[in-house]
C-alpha cells in the first residue's frame, strides 16, 4: 500500500497522462515537501577513502534506508566520493554497483582503490612521508606532476591536502587548488584502513565507469536503484571545463522522465534551502516524485551572521520508493511560508 504522505503529489494516474507527451512538461509548480524529522549523521564504520567537497557522507545512511527492499544493484551516475555506495555496502542493502563519474582522474583513482588497494595505500604512504618537513613546496611539486601525468596516487594526496577537498581546475584543465596548510592529510594508516574497507565492499561486484550520466542511465533496469547527486546547479550552468560539462536542467528532467517511463526506482539529491531561500530550481511536479526535505543544521554563513537559518537538503523520490517502509518519519508542510524554527525541531532518529 502506498504511503499516505505521498497522496497530494501527482499520482501515478496523473503521471500516466503525462506519459503521452514526448517532451516532459516542465512546470514551475513546486511540490509541497515532506519534512524529515530524522537527524542525519554519518554511520560509524563506513570506509570513506576519498575526501571530497560535496560528499553525501552525512546523509548516506538516511538515503540508503530509503532503498526498496530487494534492490539488486545501486547505480550511481554522479558518484564523486561514492558515499552512498559505500554506506549501501556497509548496510548490506545491495550486492552490486555501477559507479560512474565524468571526472576521469577520479574514476582512475577509484579503480586503483577497488582493484589494487595495497598498491595505492603504499604509494599514498610514500607521498605522505616524503612531504614531512617540506609540506608546502612538496604539495606544489605533486600538483605539477599530477597535471602532467594524472597519477591516481598524486590525485589522492592532493585531495587529502587541498583546501576543503575541493576539485578545482583552471580553464586549461590544470588542478589549481591550494594546500590547506593546517593539515597534512589523513595519516597513512587511516587512509589504508579506508582504502582496504572500500575495496572489500566493492571488489568484484562493481563496474567503474567514466562517461556522461545519460549513458549510465541508459543501462539501468527495473530492480536497480539509481541514486543521483548532480553538481550544484548554480555552478555547473556557468562552468564548463575539461572534466565538468555541466548538467542542464532540461536534460536532467528528460532523463528522470525516461527512468519513470521504465519504472526504475531512483532518488535524487537536488537543490536545498537555507531558511526560506531556495538554491537552484525544484524538479517539476509533473514528474510525480515525492519531495522530502531533511534538516542539515545551520549554514556556516548564518552562524557567522548570528542568524538562525536552518539549512535543508532536498531528496526527490520516485514512486517505487515507499517512505513508510523506510521507517523514516516525515510530516507534510503546508507551504514554505509556514516554516518556523519551532517546526524544525528534529525529534526522531532513523532506523536501519
Ligand atoms: C555533487 S558531486 C557528487 C558527490 C557524491 N554524491 C559524493 O558523495 O561524493 C557531483 C559529481 O558529478 C560529476 N559530474 C558532473 N557532470 C557529470 C556528468 N555529465 N556525468 C557524470 N558525472 C558528472 C562531478 O565530477 C562530481 O563528482
CATH third-tier fold name of the largest domain? Rossmann fold
C-alpha Rg, in Å? 21 Å
Tell me, what is the CATH class of the largest domain? Answer: Alpha Beta
Beta-strand residue percentage: 15-25%
Largest sheet composition: 10 strands, mixed
- Average per-residue pLDDT, rounded, comes to 81
Q: How would you describe the shape?
A: globular
Run of helices and strands:
HEHEHEHHHHHEHEHHEEEHEEH
Report how far the terminal alpha carbons are from each other: 21 Å
Bound molecules: S-adenosylmethionine
Number of helices: 13
Query: Unreliable runs, pLDDT <50, ≥5 residues?
Result: 1-29, 236-240, 333-352
State the CATH architecture of the largest domain.
Answer: 3-Layer(aba) Sandwich
The secondary structure category is alpha/beta
The proportion of residues forming helix, as a percent range, comes to: 25-40%
What would you give as the CATH superfamily of the largest domain?
A: Vaccinia Virus protein VP39
Number of separate strands: 10
What's the domain count?
2
